[in-house]
Amino acid sequence: MKQAVIIMLLLITCLSPLWGMRKALVIGNANYNEQVLRNSINDASDVYNALKGLGFSASLFTDLNREGFFRAVGEFVSTLTPSDEVVFFYSGHAAQIEGKNYLIPVNEYIDSATRCAYLSYDTSMLLDELSRAAISIVILDACRDNPFAFSRSIRSGLAPMTVSAGSQCVIFATEQGRTASDGEGRNSPFTESLLANITTPGIKITDLIQRVSNEVAIKTQERQIPYSTGTLRQDFYFVKAEPVTPISPVIPPSIPQERKPVVSPSYGSIKVKTSFGGDLYIDGEFSQSLFAGDQPIIKDIAVGVYELKLVSPKETIIRLANVNKNQTTMIDFDAPDSYREEPKKIPEQQIIIPEQQIPHSEKQSIELNSLTPLSPITKKVSVGTGALTIESPLAGDLYLGGDFIGKLTAKTSKKFSNVQAGSYTLEVMHQNSFCRKEIRIYNKDNLKVTLSQTEFSKYPDGFQYISGGTFQMGTQFLNRSEDERPRHEVQILPFLMKKTEVEQKLWTDVMGYNPSEIKGDSYPVTNVSFYEAVQFCNALSILNGLTPCYKIDKSKTDPNNLCNLDTLRYIISCNWNASGYRLPTEAEWEYASRCGDNYNKLQFSGSNDANDVAWNSKNSENKIHPVATKNPNQWGFYDLSGNVFEWCWDYYDIYKKDKKVHPKGAEKGVYRIARGGSFNGDIDACSSTARGGFAPNFKGNNLGFRIVRNVH
User: Fold this and answer.
1) In 526-584, which residue ranges form alpha helices assigned H by DSSP?
2) Are 579 and 454 in contact (CB under 8 A)?
3) What's the distance, CA 272 to chain centroid?
4) How far is CA 91 from CA 25, 35, 142, 520, in A?
5) Whole-model pTM above 0.70?
6) CA distances in angstroms from 389 to 209, 378, 394, 454, 553, listed in the order given
7) Spacing of C-alpha 410 from chain mean position
8) How many CA atoms does the CB half-sphere of 712 hold within 13 Å?
9) Residue 207: enclosing H or E segment and its boundaries?
10) In angstroms, rounded to a whole number, what is the distance separating the alpha carbons of residues 404 and 393?
11) Crossing angle of helices 66-77 and 123-130, rounded to 10°
12) Three state DSSP letters for 583-607
């Protein structure tokens, strides 16, 4: 009996760690008197939701003062047992004073290093208190610039930390002595990468740190590199490995693959009150137009802090809204504490217009020298038929009244009989230039038109003509990725494509802001989501008097968008017959990149040597470059290989063998296609047949787009 008791005690001792709990304390401080941090509460809320979804018993606190900070940590620590696994996450300001790190509460009067040390929370004390757990992981997305510039003894960046006894790991958002970015999107760069990786099954904490560090370094151009310190005596996983690994789309290595979260974020609502009308923007995104006296409720908004801007002809008013779970936050734009901007006119093109022609008199007058719309097409048919003979100095496709009627050979006459009498716009579309001429064909007439070289002009806005044709899309080579096969026949209709990626100057002229990290008029615009790219297409179409291609419905969730990481999921439909600008389909993009080649004679767009045509990780010095600084392909298009990935319209899907005419991709999917490789990506991704994709709301410093439009 005595031996049985001893054995039972030994078993309990050995198995006790298995009975421990996974616990988490998450703190986000944002509303400092000296400097409000835009994303800290978003970061804390999203990490809290992720950890809850992973089975942690988690607590979330925001905007804690000194007393609240000490109470939250004290109550959390009092629940710990020697068998618990613990995660502590902090997002907010921190400071380094004489080699020690302090987490800074809000609403405290700190005017010296002495007060900062006294009123803030010492991280060495935190590590001591957490050491009672079996494993403690401390994650500090902190030191987002030093708000206390008055003191030389308070330094930017955090100091190295010595872990207490036990099994502890401290993860810093950036290297010692350097500051971390608050970020331009919903989350900081560090937290964004952390959230994308902690839900990955079977990844050890050491491997997760390495992956997050690499991603953040790429996102921030090496300005921020996370690191860690400490010793873990056993492996720690946020999610243990699953017995079966699901099949996911094949994404080129250089494209950061989006990961499906375990749990969706919590949601709340915002109620808006205003006594005057205007356009409402949430975090810079147009939401809706309001009339005087409106009090709409905007539902299903993820928990976090948002900037609400009401723009009227009179003034612009800004309010911050703190959205809490299952609660409605009231925002009154008539309140006296609303922040008012100086009056300024907001470009109308930022508002999405339905599929309709916009009268010129209603458009805002903006000087854009590069935007030169073509005159309308004439097609007025009368009674009878006649004949038309054309002689052109250049080869090309012949259009009559907007309809394709045949191909012309250079300096050779071609006769067309039985042409319906009437008035027409005659067009010859050569690859690099075009001719437009108004003609009249009478009944029983035999009209001869001889064109001269001087009648041909370059296409406006840096576009070139691509004649329709049929080609074998995909690759026949077995050493290429499986998703580039099988080769299948695709018929492409004629279209116009911009010779370069959309430059920052054009984007800024149209949209009024520049989201790119590295600025320069001739650099491609980057950090643009799929949604922002289609909004730009509509805005540019309106400026040029063209019918917008896209209709965007933000009031509903798109059931065909299967990407759980996409918090927007707008419903976007395309009028493929509209005259406006749009993104290329994946088939159009590959046809232009390969110049219609059926046999993949060239691996990259214009060469078998990537260095000739593509900025990539081997030759770019990890920097983005201005457009058209490498050689063009045989059709005159630049950077279809390398520099930045380019959004396409299609959802990612596997190829089918059957022939397609003007294919537009799958009806539903997780990723939108991105093609072409990038300045910081592998050479392999720059191939004309390489495929990849992103969540539609994803933005990156190596992701841009180019635009196309129908011939008419």
Assistant:
1) 530-543
2) no
3) 28
4) 12, 14, 5, 32
5) no
6) 71, 19, 15, 19, 48
7) 45
8) 17
9) helix 205-219
10) 19
11) 20
12) CCCHHHHHHHHHCCCCCCCCCECCE
Residue 309 · residue 318 · CB < 8 Å:
yes
Q: With contact defined as beta carbons under 8 Å apart, do 83 and 19 qualify?
A: yes
Q: C-alpha 285: how far from its chain's center?
A: 13
d(CA 307, CA 108): 24
pLDDT digits (tens, 9 = 90+) for 431-489: 999 999 999 999 999 999 999 999 999 998 899 999 999 999 999 998 888 889 999 99
β-bridge pairing 692-694 and 304-311: unpaired
For residue 495, what are the CA distances in angstroms to 533, 662, 709?
19, 11, 6
State both tokens at 540.
Answer: 């540019």
Q: Identify the CA nearest to 374 among candidates 399, 395, 354.
A: 399
**Residue indicated by tokens 């994709």:** 693
DSSP code per residue over 118-161:
HHSEEHHHHHHHHTTSSEEEEEEEE--S-S-TT-TTEESS----
Bridge partners (DSSP) of residue 226 are none
Each residue's pLDDT tens digit, 143-194: 654 444 333 334 445 666 666 556 889 998 887 657 777 777 788 889 999 9
Distances (CA, A) of 672 to 155, 224, 442: 43, 28, 50
The token duo for 588 is 């159009």
657 — alpha (psi -120 to 50), left (phi > 0) or beta? alpha
Q: Tell which phi-psi region holds residue 565, choosing left (phi > 0), alpha (psi between -120 and 50) or beta.
A: alpha
Cβ proximity of 647 and 610 under 8 Å: no
